[in-house]
Write a structure and sequence with these properties.
Blueprint: E1 2-9, H1 13-25, E2 31-34, H2 39-47, E3 52-54, H3 56-60, E4 71-82, E5 86-97, H4 99-112, E6 116-118, E7 122-127, E8 132-136, E9 139-148, H5 155-159, E10 165-174, E11 182-186, E12 196-201, E13 204-210, E14 221-231, E15 238-239, E16 242-244, H6 260-275, H7 280-288, H8 295-304, H9 308-315, H10 323-332, H11 337-349
Parallel strand pairs: 1-2, 1-9, 2-6, 4-11, 9-16
Antiparallel strand pairs: 3-5, 4-5, 7-8, 8-9, 10-13, 10-14, 11-12, 12-13, 15-16
Helix pairs in contact: 1-4, 1-6, 6-7, 8-11
The structure holds flavin-adenine dinucleotide.
Flavin-adenine dinucleotide binds near residues 15 and 257.
Length: about 350
């Protein structure tokens, strides 16, 4: 039987980060990263994303960084469209990235550090006394630690009997020149707490929204895509020597539905805990970090129930875009203070 110290399932943002940092924190660990998709399918799968990240991602995953050829464009403005034609615009610092390219670069770095990659499906596992027996393609591998980064429909999570909150996002590639440097969000009661997004992507525009009972009319559609995400967290992220990360652990932010940065941060935390020989460090660190705050889910459940009138009303004080608006909100819209706090925090760690 083949052996390794750490076996990571899934080479999405969470998995590639866990793989890289497992070797980074302890170069002597034998680490295997498993990915089921061939190169073409891998590009297709990871293109199903707005690919928008905050510039803060780079601070979180140092020494990893985005190279010029992995950045599609810089994002400097966010435009929020609320009901009753309320439009709020502010400056932000982010990127639209070429995520498959970025992840493949990280995989190469992982291999250069001595990591192994198996491009086969992870099919099953059994927990033994002090190890885990995994079936990958037609190979049987004995591992000390199993990191599940296998996305929202995680086989590992399902086998542990944990459901998680799963939702489907639709995305359309539109053959229309986008507004460069800007991401646009449209809020409406029909999106049930979520939103419609309009992101630039080279010469195309990516438009997406949650799968709800509503037909959105779109022109110049080149491609329609759909994928599930897991959001809102779990009670526990560690089950003995099994660690769940990223969408497998429902770590996508409930308010923003951003999951690249949370997944990469979780991958790093999980790798660090393994290097320190105590998996519970990961569970604790995630729950104590702003990424793992319960406020996002609590507020998402509230926003989900808001009518268009209330969506408009609760953002009205910010119309002026100046400090007086913030004061007005603090003094006269106290009912929404928790919501405002969650919005502010999600701006910092939700993407
Ligand atoms: C339409 C859409 C738009 C989005 N836009 C954004 C955005 O702009 N910004 C943002 O931050 N987030 C966005 N997200 C969310 C983000 O894509 C996810 O949260 C993130 O990809 C989760 O990362 P992950 O590594 O946990 O899982 P995934 O990205 O789902 O990766 C899982 C990997 O595991 C592999 N795998 C699964 N099962 C197995 C198996 N049995 N054996 C081997 N390999 C396996 C898969 O092939 C895949 O490569 C968007 C999501 C969608 C659907």
């Amino acid at each position: 039987m083949e052996k390794c110290d750490v076996l990571i399932v899934g080479a999405g943002p969470a998995g590639v980060s866990a793989a890289f940092f497992s070797k980074y924190y302890n170069e002597n660990l034998d680490v295997i990263l498993v990915e089921r998709l061939n190169e073409k399918k891998y590009f297709e799968y990871h293109d199903i994303c707005g690919e928008c990240v905050s510039k803060n991602l780079e601070k979180d995953i140092k020494p990893l960084k985005l190279e010029k050829n992995e950045i599609i464009e810089e994002i400097k403005l966010i435009e929020e469209r609320w009901p009753n034609d309320l439009i709020l615009t502010r400056k932000i610092k982010g990127y639209i990235i070429d995520r498959p390219k970025f992840f493949l670069k990280i995989i190469k770095k992982f291999r250069d550090m001595g990591g192994n990659v198996i491009w086969k499906p992870f099919l099953n596992y059994e927990v033994k006394n002090n190890f885990i027996k995994a079936k990958v393609g037609d190979r049987i591998i004995k591992t000390n630690y199993l990191i599940a980064a296998d996305g929202s429909n995680s086989l590992v999570r399902r086998k542990l009997g944990i459901k998680g909150r799963i939702t489907t996002l639709l995305q359309y590639i539109i053959d229309e020149e986008p507004e460069h440097g800007k991401i646009i969000f449209e809020y409406d009661e029909k999106w049930k707490g979520d939103y419609k997004w309009i992101f630039p992507h080279g010469d195309n525009t990516k438009i997406g929204f949650p799968l709800v009972k509503h037909k959105e009319e779109l022109r110049n559609v080149v491609k329609k895509q759909a994928r599930n995400i897991g959001y809102g967290g779990l009670e526990k992220y560690v089950y003995g020597n099994i660690l769940l990360i990223g969408d497998a652990a429902c770590q996508n932010n409930p308010l923003t539905k951003g999951g690249i940065r949370p997944g990469m941060v979780a991958g790093k935390f999980a790798a660090e805990a393994i290097a320190k020989g105590d998996t519970n460090i990961y569970d604790k660190k995630w729950k104590e970090s702003p990424f793992g705050s319960n406020i996002f889910l609590e507020v998402f459940e509230k926003v989900k129930k808001m009518s268009n009138d209330e969506l408009y009303y609760h953002m009205k004080p910010f119309k002026s875009g100046n400090v007086l608006g913030f004061l007005k909100a603090l003094l006269f819209y106290r009912k929404y203070l928790k919501i405002y706090r969650a919005y502010e925090l999600s701006g910092k760690v939700g993407w």
